[in-house]
Write a structure and sequence with these properties.
233 residues, alpha/beta, Glutaconate Coenzyme A-transferase, 8-stranded mixed sheet, 3-stranded antiparallel sheet, 6 helices, 27% strand, transferase, NagB/RpiA_transferase-like, 3-oxoacid_CoA-transf_A
């Protein structure tokens, strides 16, 4: 219901119901806009055999990378290995199943999952290992491969502001995969920097409507920079 209070006050309540073997979709890109405290709660819960869907798997010791330390992730669906030595090590050793997916295809898999579209055709990946074994159809003389949508048991999302009804606003680049992830979870949990009163958010500025959101929690964030680059004066 649009007017239902969705605010929870503990991370245990925010992630209640997460179990071994579930699929978790996480917003963020690199370390920008990642739900860092929700990820830490997943670590604390010590659930295992997870399938995690995200652009990348954080870095060593931060973000989704912390879930690799205790082998909590069984399958990682991502577009990028990133600056993560443990991820690379577990992938090459065969400990971790990694399904590398083109970035735009991954974004559309989430969006389609949230929109109730079971699959779609894309030209990306045709004629490469990505397309092996997938259905091919031709449109306007060009071959396309069939990609299936992704839905998660949980979606964990980082946002800038939200009201208690779950209407959400993202800030700048931190918007990235978060709006797509938010639509694709059976249970969507959003952690925010600021909670506002209903009516304070201009409806035209809302990026994720509350109908998609099940739980909202106010958090404090480190916002670590993955790779600081500066130029000389």
């Amino acid at each position: 219901m649009a007017g239902f209070n969705k605010v929870v006050t503990s991370y245990a309540d925010a992630m209640a119901g997460l179990k071994d073997g579930m699929t978790v979709i996480a917003g963020g890109f690199g370390l920008c806009g990642i739900p860092e405290n929700l990820i830490q709660e997943v670590k604390r819960l010590a659930v295992t055999d997870l399938t995690v869907v995200s652009n990348n798997c954080g870095v060593d010791g931060f973000g989704l990378g912390v879930l690799l330390e205790d082998r909590q992730i069984k399958t990682m669906i991502a577009s990028y290995v990133g600056e993560n030595a443990l991820f690379e090590q577990q992938m090459l050793s065969g400990e971790l199943e990694v399904i590398l997916t083109p970035q735009g295809t991954l974004a559309e898999k989430m969006r389609a999952g949230g929109a109730g579209i079971p699959a779609f055709f894309t030209a990306t990946g045709y004629g490469t290992p990505i397309g092996e074994g997938k259905e091919v159809r031709e449109f306007d003389g060009r071959p396309y491969i069939l990609e299936e949508a992704i839905k998660g048991d949980f979606a964990i999302v980082k946002a800038w502001k939200a009201d208690r009804y779950g209407n959400v606003v993202y800030r700048h680049t931190a918007r990235n995969f978060n709006p797509l992830a938010a639509t694709a979870g059976k249970i969507t949990v959003v952690e925010v920097e600021e909670l506002v009163e209903p009516g304070e958010l201009d409806p035209a500025d809302v990026h994720t409507p509350g109908i998609y959101v099940d739980r909202v929690i106010l958090g404090k964030f480190e916002k670590r920079i993955e790779k600081r680059t500066v130029r000389t004066r």
